[in-house]
Design brief:
single chain; alpha/beta; Rossmann fold; 2 domains; 5-stranded mixed beta sheet; 14 helices; 15% strand; binds nicotinamide-adenine-dinucleotide
Length: 430
């Protein structure tokens, strides 16, 4: 099935390479699960989507209008949940693809959510703090009729952070007249955020890498890792691998530089550098390499933790890693997947919807604590996180082995199956 060939003309608002990729991935799973043709479009297209225009007064006295989006994929299992991306290239189609992936991810972890995603087509690094606050508040203001603690809960994603979540929470609360901290997750602990949320995604990634190393009988102290992206997820994963697991981190990168040193990188110094300078451009300049070759450098563990579609038909055959831990959403194209499937005994793939699920799992804990006015300690949060990840990991590995399918097919099939089942028992509405 190609959902985009539908006679339903409203579907064209999602036309985009990333949405096509999410539909192509779904088709593989739908064939494997023998899903009826009639149920396929229904499962891929979002239930609801909204586009908003955000006029903002800039510091230089001009007025600029930014485009914002929010997509709610399905509500068969509960309210929708998903991050907010601030990135110049963001489109409705990409937002819809990210919402669809969130659905399979939440269902795989058995969280009571449908997937959602939103964001603004803006480069946040080009805005002053005042402008960033104005864009964030205006975005939430426009979303008020569309979201709520029992309808759609926002969180952070690329280009957004705890401060932006605090502005979202405040804007929503000002409108309601009381503090509604359950409207967003990933907010600062000082206003009802949970301990351990900031680190959750990277920490989950490393938990799963450790499980994979143990299955493959790899000694962490003899392993090397390359991490693409040094933001929230990539930096936490790199720090945790280097200082907790004992893995030597030989490569790190961001949108300004790719750094590789086979003797190892001082990840703490890199973190301090980014804290002060905002990026890696001037860090370890003697070790800078061509970003295009970065992912194919030799290592045991490769972690794409930045943008989508970086592992493609062109470079998948050249990857030299033993474990591919997909911390980013959608880093591997379906064409690359077909190559990786043939290399299944060389490369152990931890697919994105499993690998980066730590973020939404701890967001779920934050939402539960907010609704119930509970306060959990960091170790309670982390223990519960690892328990859910362990269960999901074991299910995926078992299914892949029993059915001789890839880890991605096993993970997605488990999530898709749960959503389809819930939709079928409820009816056409969700
Ligand atoms: P972030 O904005 O904190 O960091 C993104 C990093 O990627 C930055 O270092 C940026 O410089 C770098 N980057 C951007 N474009 C790049 C490029 N072309 N090449 C190399 N590096 C590049 O974002 P984040 O929250 O760390 O998210 C990273 C990825 O993880 C995204 O795909 C996101 O959807 C996914 N993810 C994030 C969370 C979360 O909790 N934050 C949860 C699940 C999945």
């Amino acid at each position: 099935m190609d959902a985009r060939d539908s006679t339903n003309s409203s579907a064209t608002i999602y036309d985009d390479e990333v949405f096509k990729m999410a539909c192509d991935q779904f088709s593989v799973i739908a064939d494997y699960l023998n899903i009826d043709e009639g149920d396929r479009e229904w499962a891929t297209y979002p239930k609801r989507a909204v586009a908003v225009t955000l006029p903002v007064h800039m510091d230089d006295g001009s007025t600029k209008a930014f485009q914002g989006y929010r997509v709610q994929h399905h509500i068969a299992l509960g309210p929708t949940k998903g991050g907010t991306r601030f990135a110049l290239s963001l489109s409705m189609g990409e937002t819809a693809a990210l919402a669809m992936w969130m659905s399979w991810k939440c269902a795989l972890a058995q969280l009571p959510y449908g997937g959602a995603k939103g964001g603004v087509a803006v480069d946040p690094t080009k805005l002053s703090r005042n402008e960033l606050e104005a864009v964030s508040r205006r975005y939430m203001q426009e979303m008020i009729p569309f979201v709520g603690p029992h309808t759609d809960i926002m969180g952070p994603d690329m280009g957004t952070n705890e401060q932006i979540m605090a502005w979202f929470m405040d804007t929503y609360s000002v409108y309601m007249g009381y503090a509604v901290n359950e409207i967003v997750t990933g907010k600062p602990v000082a206003i009802g955020g949970t301990e351990g949320r900031r680190e959750a995604t990277g920490r989950g990634v490393v938990y799963l890498i450790e499980r994979a190393m143990s299955m493959l009988k790899l000694n962490p102290e003899k392993c090397t890792a390359i991490v693409q992206g040094f933001g929230n997820v990539g930096s936490v994963a790199a720090l945790s691998l280097a200082y907790k697991s004992g893995v030597k981190v030989t490569g790190i990168s961001d949108h300004t530089a790719a750094i590789y040193n086979p003797k190892g990188i001082d990840v703490k110094a890199a973190e301090q550098h980014v804290f002060k300078k905002g990026n890696l451009r001037a860090f370890a300049q003697d070790d800078h390499v061509d970003p295009k070759e970065f992912l194919t450098l030799p290592c045991d563990i490769l972690i794409p933790a930045a943008v989508d579609r970086v592992i493609t038909g062109k470079n998948a055959g050249q990857l030299k890693c033993r474990i591919l831990a997909e911390a980013a959403n959608g880093p591997t194209t379906p064409e690359a997947d077909r190559i990786l499937e043939k290399r299944w005994d060389e490369i152990f793939v931890i697919p994105d919807i499993l690998c980066n699920a730590g973020g939404v799992i701890v967001s779920y804990f934050e939402w539960v604590q907010g609704l119930q006015a509970f306060l959990w300690t960091e170790s309670e949060v982390t223990d519960k996180l690892f328990r859910i990840l362990e269960h999901s990991f074991a299910q995926v590995i078992r299914r892949a082995k029993e059915h001789k399918i890839s880890h991605r097919t096993a993970a997605m099939a488990t999530g898709v199956e749960r959503v389809i089942k819930a939709k079928q028992v409820r009816g056409l509405f969700p």
